[in-house]
Structure formats: structure tokens, C-alpha cells
Design brief:
By secondary structure, the chain is α/β, with parallel strands linked by helices. It contains 4 helices and 8 strands; from the N terminus they run βαββββαβαβαβ. Helix 3 runs parallel beside helix 4. The relative contact order is 0.21.
Amino acid sequence: MDESIPQDPNRAALLVVDVQPDFMPGGALATQGGDTVVAPIARLLERGGFRHVVATQDWHPPGHVSFASSHPGRAPFETVELYGAEQVLWPDHCVQGAYGAELHPGVPWQHADTVLRKATDPRVDSYSAFRENLAPDGSRPPTGLAGCLRERGVETLYVCGLARDVCALWSAEDGAAAGFGVHFLWDLTRPVDAGNDAAVQDALERAGARVVTGEPA
């Protein structure tokens, strides 16, 4: 059975996470082989099978708190404490209005009925499609996506995109925590660091998400 096609498309949504040039080879924050998911995700959208398709778009204002350049003396991929939690400092990436922040032109985005821009608050990072990272008040503010999907009758979520070990993972975990049945399309994700794959699989299992394939065998 093709596990990437839901049995009841009216109650399922495809979540395409951060398929943007800055996460491709040569981009500001390249994933390992991120460009190789573009064509299969495009095929998945063209095949149909999902009544609802949500695309997330990393959309940082200049000087975002998650950028190493916003912390004098710090380098990309170092960590700092931010609001009581560990924050990875990233290279400047997906800056609002820049080419690297655009949705990748190789994906037929006309099939998406929702585009969710995240990390728009300069003080707060945002990996997940469902909740922002820790805010100054210690909360993780919701994005509103969970309620939007419930209003549309969605019960099952299929997750693909970038990066496997950061935004796609956090989105899957938070989607499961919000009560959705989550299918993680492993072969349609790519990591920042493939050395994290085992930890990602463990985290998905703990969250109750099911790891499946997105391309037909």
C-alpha cells in the first residue's frame, strides 16, 4: 500500500515544512541533500490525495534573536541560554524578502491551501508549525494551525520537508501532542546533520508518530 496517500483524504492534511532555497545545498543553512526532496514532494502534490495541504515558510526579520550575528562574539551553531532554554545560534537565513526565504519554485504550491509563515517575532525562534519556541514569558505560543486543521475536520497529518532533525521533527511532535495521528514521510525529509537520525527516530516513536515512506515502492 502507498502509505503517502491517506485512506480518507477529507480528514488528512499534508504538511510541507520549510522547502526553501536557504535550506538547499549552497544556501545559508543547507541541509544534507535538501534539494533532493523537491521533485518527489512535487510529485506527491501533483498526484493529489490530500484535500488540505499546508506549507510552512521560515520568515525571519533581520537581526532575529536566533542568528549568531545578533550575539557579538558568538559563531553559528554555538548554543546560548535564551529564556531558560538552550538556543542554537544559526547563520542568518530565510530573511524576509530574500530569495533564500522564498518557497522553492520547483514545488507546485498552487496545491497548498494554507501558507504559514513562522519565526516572524524577532525575539522568539519558531521551529514547529504548531507552536513557537520558548517566548520571554516562558510560554510556547500556538500558531493557530491546530485549530485551523480541526475546523476543517483534519484528524491525520503527513509531514515532510526540512529539516528532518529540527523543524520537521518539532512539527511532528507538536502535531501528535495536539491529538493528530502523525505520519512522518522519512524519505521526503533531509537533516542538517544525518548523525541525528537515530535520535530523530527515537523522538518520533516517543511522540507516537509513525515513520513511513512518501515515494511509492
